[in-house]
Structures are given as C-alpha cells and as structure tokens.
Specification:
single chain; 110 residues; alpha+beta; Arc Repressor Mutant, subunit A; 3-stranded antiparallel β-sheet; 4 helices
Length: 110
Amino acid sequence: MDTTQLLKGVLDAAVLAVVNHEDGYGYDVVRRLRQAGLENVADASVYGTLRRLFAAGALTNYVVPSDEGPHRKYYGITDHGKEILATQREEWHQFAATLTHVLTHEGASS
C-alpha cells in the first residue's frame, strides 16, 4: 500500500507528537519520524508542516548557535499545540478503530 496519501493526513499529528516528546530542529524531527517508522516522510513536507504549525500558534521556535555549522531553529510545542495534539490523538483512535472494524468485517454492516 502506498502510504504517501495517508501520511499527508496525519503529518501534523506526527510532528506535534515528536516535538511534544522533545524540542527539535527541522532535520532532527525528520530523523525521529523516520526512526519511528515513517521512512517515506519527505524533508520538505516536514519543514512545511513545522512552518505552518508555527504560524498557527501550535509551535514556538528559538535559535541555538552551532559550532559545527549554521545556527539551528528549534521548535517546541505550545499549550495550543498540546490541545490540537490531544484532539488529533482522539480522532485518530476513533478513525483507526472504525477502519479496523470495517476491514475485519469486510465492510458488512452488523
């Protein structure tokens, strides 16, 4: 199954969950998502999601100097972002349970 379209629908939640665990800069967030099993996540998609979530007030950011290259912009989750994440987690669990039911029962109504 090509999970590209599925990933687009849940990337906000995945990024918020990763940053909720620990602040991170762009490529760090990409790396952590891939380590968690989302190997096909595109760098550009994650960077765009970080910028959009920041603009929406779900994330904050700050710059940390680096001796090994350019300064890094770190992202952290805001209280608003935590509320969004909680809602998206609940919606995901409901959706996953419904789809599991449909797939298990081959779409037949009980």
